[in-house]
Amino acid sequence: MHRRWFTQMPLFLALAGFTAINLTPIIWGFLISLKQPVDAFAVPPKLIFTPTLEFHYQVWVEKAFWHFLINSAIISVSTVIVSVSVGTMAAYGLSRLSNRTSRGLLFGLLAMRMFPHILLAIPFFLLAKTLGLINTYPAMVLALVAVNQPFTIWLMRGFFVDVPHELYEAAEIDGCNAWQVFARVALPVVRPGLWVTALFSLLLAYNEFLFALVLTGPDTKTLPVAIAEYGGEDINYWSLSAAAAIGIMLPIVLFMMALQRHLVRGLALGAVKG
Amino acid sequence: MLFPLGYAFWLSLFDYDLGSGSHAFIAFGNYTDLLSDSRFWASLNRTVGIVLAAVGLEFCLGLAIAYGLYRLTFAVRVLNLLMFLPNIVTPVVAALFLRWIFMGRWGLIAGTLISLGIFPPDFLGDPAWARVAVVLADSWQFTPFMILVLYAGLNTVDQSQIEAAQIDGAGPLTLLFRIMLPAIRPLIVFVLAIRLMDAFRFFDTIYVLTAGGPGTATETITLYTYALAFRLLQVGKASALGVLTLLFVAVLVAVMIRVVYRREKGAF
Fold first, then answer.
1. Which one of A34, A228, B56, B58 counts the least CB within 10 Å of its CB?
2. CA R_g for chain A
3. A233 pLDDT exceeds 60?
4. Do B239 and A203 count as a contact with CB atoms less than 8 A apart?
5. Nearest to B71 among A11, A28, A241 (CB)
6. Which chain A residues are Cβ-neighbours of B119 within 8 angstroms?
7. pLDDT band at B266 (very low <50, low <70, confident <90, very high)
8. A33 assigned to some structural domain
């Protein structure tokens, strides 16, 4: 027992130390958001100060960041709905194809995953411009669905492959048609996987920056674009943009805390099974 | 998905300038232009350097931490969860956080050093330091991902093999390098391939952190493409650059997959 503590304790301390370093930027950002600008760029860095929520209020209410939050919400939720439903059906189809055929398609999907997004941003921008879709929600949602699709299909397929074949056969013998086999048998079995996929699509859509930068306008700007415009350039804005940054981060962290087990398992699964 | 790609390739054959409105077919003119463009080669070099440094650091650190977590018998879940946080933070927000850390004079590092009486370099204003900052920024965000995947991989290694090795007197390091790493080699290649692909299109963080500067010290290929398309409005040339990037990454990944395939069949 003694010997175990001897090796476990330093290990724990080392890992905890790493975690602490890892979290420093986030904690520091949080502290800045509670500081007056004077305190925020004091040298040496101040750890003791009077906290204020003034800037959180200013950025979300007076600078109308709530408006960008609504944009972000509309865009990410629509993306999730479209890409998960399409992805689920495609993945189900793939999982029931013979190995040979589906392997080719899967490699194709993997290849799509490595497209530099910037390469797609140009045609998306020109298409949206000719169709008059710049600064509208559909343009953004379509672009996000397009880049997200390979991932959703890939992940969902991992879950469908686990469904035993006998289940399908039994359903067919009982007289289910193809659609019923999918909707009544396969779908309920993979429901946990569905949540994982939805969660990741949501993260991707919420965090996306490049397409949002190019495709959205004043009315549809999402949170990442809005905060990037504030930048960190002008020191007087530090407290404001820190408040916004913390606000943007909050929903993600809450989501993750709530769905922690699914998230980690899903990521590990998606990667391990590849 | 294929349509935009085809359209991008089609665009890359034109001298298409949104600014002056010119739109002429020049076949592979854009490509020959780029290949003789020193800014292109410089940005390619930089990208490769940054990507290799970042992915290498992420992998070594990630492996060490994952193995540490594997050996640890308590508090693993809490640590794992906390460590994972930087990976899910919106990249733009993450870059802002890091700006406040690296910023010259007022950033956390600089501020701390100054109060200790050391005059620090301007981390984002000095070309060499800016590159280091970019590498660290990418590592900060993606080491957690490595840790997670490798940790999951280590846990899949056959327990009886490990016990057999331990009975034979293998220490922790021998165990890791001789038994566990060979066992999860396909996973390692896979995760490296994924990270390489992603790191090549790494955009948000650099855009916010340094915007490619100072000068062009941290301008990667993706940032150069963005500048061409949406600042200089040379859409044709930018598309050509995008196609070249795609080819480059594709060849890289194909080689990696080939190597694994030859070594052990059925890895993918």
1. B56
2. 23
3. no
4. no
5. A11
6. none
7. very low
8. no
Higher pLDDT, B209 or A38: B209
pLDDT at A130: 80
Helix, strand, coil share (%) of chain B residues, nearest 5: 75, 5, 25
Q: How does pLDDT run across B229-239, given as a tens digit for each residue?
A: 777 777 777 88
Min distance B181 CA to chain A CA atoms (Å): 14
Domains in chain B with CATH codes: 11-263 (1.10.3720.10)
Which one of A45, A111, A150 has the shortest CB-CB distance to B108? A45
CATH of the domain at A165: 1.10.3720.10
Contact A18, B65 (CB under 8 A): yes
Task: Identify the domain containing residue A147 by its residue range.
Answer: 64-230
Binary contact (A114, B250; C-beta < 8 A): yes
Task: Give the separation between CA A31 and CA A23, rounded to whole angstroms.
Answer: 12
Tens-place pLDDT, residues A65-111 = 788 888 888 888 999 999 999 889 888 888 887 677 777 777 777 77
| Subunit contact B91:A223, Cβ cutoff 8 A | no
Question: Smallest Cα–Cα separation from A79: which of A162, A164, A146, A169?
Answer: A146
Question: In angstroms, rounded to a whole number, what is the distance separating the alpha carbons of residues B217 and A267?
Answer: 34
pLDDT tier, B132 (very low <50, low <70, confident <90, very high otherwise): confident
- What is the enclosing helix (H) or strand (E) of B25? strand B23-25
State the smallest CA–CA distance between residue A189 and chain B in angstroms.
23
ipTM topping 0.85? no
Nearest chain A Cα distance for residue B128, angstroms:
21
Which two tokens mark A169? 């056969």
**Alpha-carbon distance A176 to nearest alpha carbon in chain B (angstroms):** 33
Q: Do B111 and A223 touch (CB under 8 A)?
A: no
